[in-house]
Structure formats: structure tokens, C-alpha cells
């Protein structure tokens, strides 16, 4: 993921160095010192910026009654193995969801390949809105390597804070189901990593929403 950004910075640095040396061929040491001197200044670009909470919303229309959709939102059975390439690179993806209890205070567990998101319910407006906090989360990915790598950047650089599912009746008789995730990350530059995060979260949402749609339209229920 860092490769495009790294290649961009490397290319810019190479062009600057080339331009300096091309104008003054004997100034290679000076050019090298200038480029090295620039590095520390980059560390202060976002040094004092507080993490910004970002929301990602994905939606789908489902041809089923709201109560059936609701039951499949609250918890859902095992998903099929993903076909998307991004999930074959080590990115964590959801496999099922379970809940302990009902109503506000119930605890939902959205289980991923790397562990579970622990989600205490904060709003239970059946069958319209399910909202929850995230108090625990697993690593966002498993590094692809010949060795068992437990890299520090897998922890606390992507922080999921809240989520919700919203059900809305639309004029065509279907249910519009919207999934929303609120998150921030502690990795710089934020604008670059947000592009990746938003894309991955949309893919995760899409996987879950399609699963809920299939189960709801086939009449399957979670059994709660």
C-alpha cells in the first residue's frame, strides 16, 4: 500500500537531484546534503494534527420486508469465501456476526478472519436503526510473508469507533439498507491512507450488505 506513495516521493527527489546536478555538475555532494536536510522537515507536516473522524457509507436495495432484513442485520451466518482480489492479499474480511442479548446494551460480535469487532449496541430502533460503538477490534490485515510477522503498524493505526445499519422504505417497495463506519487512523499522511481505508471499508460493507440481501430475499433468518 505504501509503494505508490514511496515511488512518488522517490521520483520527485530524483528529479530535484537531477535538476541540481544537471545545472552544476560538480555539486553532487551539495545536492545530496540538501535532499537529506529536507527529510526532517517532512516529519512536521502533520505532527500536531488531531486524527479526523471519517465516515464511509455504502448502500443496497433489498426486496424483502423490514423485519426480515432487520433479523439478518443484527446477526448473520457464515459468508462464502471472498472472490475479490484485495481480500486475498491479507486484508481482514468479515465471516459472520453474532449477538449476545437484544436492545441497547446487547453486545454484537462481527467476526473477521483476524479476530472480532466487539460492538455494544447504543441504538436499537427495530426495524429502522441499529447503531453501536466499537470497543475492541482485531488487526486489519495479516502480513503476507514467509515468516510470522506481528508488525507494530497493524495495531492502532486504523481505529474503528462506531458503526450503524439504517433501514429505509423506498417508493418501489424495497428496503434501502445503509451501512456506515466511523473511523480514524494514526498514520501519516492521512489524505493518502484515507483513500485506501475508504476503498477497503466499502468492499467490506459491500460483502456484508450483499450477504444480508441474499439471505433476506431467500427468506433466511438469523434465528434470533
A few lines on this structure:
The protein has 224 residues and is α+β, with helices and mostly antiparallel strands.
Write the layout of secondary structure elements.
Blueprint (H helix, E strand, L loop, with lengths): L2 H21 L4 H15 L11 E9 L3 H9 L19 E7 L6 E6 L2 E11 L3 E5 L24 E12 L5 E11 L4 H28 L7
Antiparallel strand pairs: 1-7, 2-3, 3-4, 4-5, 5-6, 6-7
Helix pairs in contact: 1-2, 3-4
Please give the domain count: 2
Question: What value does the Rg take, in angstroms?
Answer: 23 Å
CATH class category label of the largest domain: Alpha Beta
Q: What is the mean pLDDT?
A: 82
- The name of the CATH topology of the largest domain is Alpha-D-Glucose-1,6-Bisphosphate, Chain A, domain 4
The name of the CATH superfamily of the largest domain reads: START domain
Helix content: 25-40%
First and last CA, distance: 40 Å
Order of helices and strands: HHEHEEEEEEH
CATH architecture of the largest domain: 2-Layer Sandwich
Amino acid at each position: 500500500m505504501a509503494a505508490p506513495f514511496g515511488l512518488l516521493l522517490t521520483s520527485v527527489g530524483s528529479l530535484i537531484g537531477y535538476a541540481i546536478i544537471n545545472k552544476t555538475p560538480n555539486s553532487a555532494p551539495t545536492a545530496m546534503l540538501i535532499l537529506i536536510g529536507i527529510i526532517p522537515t517532512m516529519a512536521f507536516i502533520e505532527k500536531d494534527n488531531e486524527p479526523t473522524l471519517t465516515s464511509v457509507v455504502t448502500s443496497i436495495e433489498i426486496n424483502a420486508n423490514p423485519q426480515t432484513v432487520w433479523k439478518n442485520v443484527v446477526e448473520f451466518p457464515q459468508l462464502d469465501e471472498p472472490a475479490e482480489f484485495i481480500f486475498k492479499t491479507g486484508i481482514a474480511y468479515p465471516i459472520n456476526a453474532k449477538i449476545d442479548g437484544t436492545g441497547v446494551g446487547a453486545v454484537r460480535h462481527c467476526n473477521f478472519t483476524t479476530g472480532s469487532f466487539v460492538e455494544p449496541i447504543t441504538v436499537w430502533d427495530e426495524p429502522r436503526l441499529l447503531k453501536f460503538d466499537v470497543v475492541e477490534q482485531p488487526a486489519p490485515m495479516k502480513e503476507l510473508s514467509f515468516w510470522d510477522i506481528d508488525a507494530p503498524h497493524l495495531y492502532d493505526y486504523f481505529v474503528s469507533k462506531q458503526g450503524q445499519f439504517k433501514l429505509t422504505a423506498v417508493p418501489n417497495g424495497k428496503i434501502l439498507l445503509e451501512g456506515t463506519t466511523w473511523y480514524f487512523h494514526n498514520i501519516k499522511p492521512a489524505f493518502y491512507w484515507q483513500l485506501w481505508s475508504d476503498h477497503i471499508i466499502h468492499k467490506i460493507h459491500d460483502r456484508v450488505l450483499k450477504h444480508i440481501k441474499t439471505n433476506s430475499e431467500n427468506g433466511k433468518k438469523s434465528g434470533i
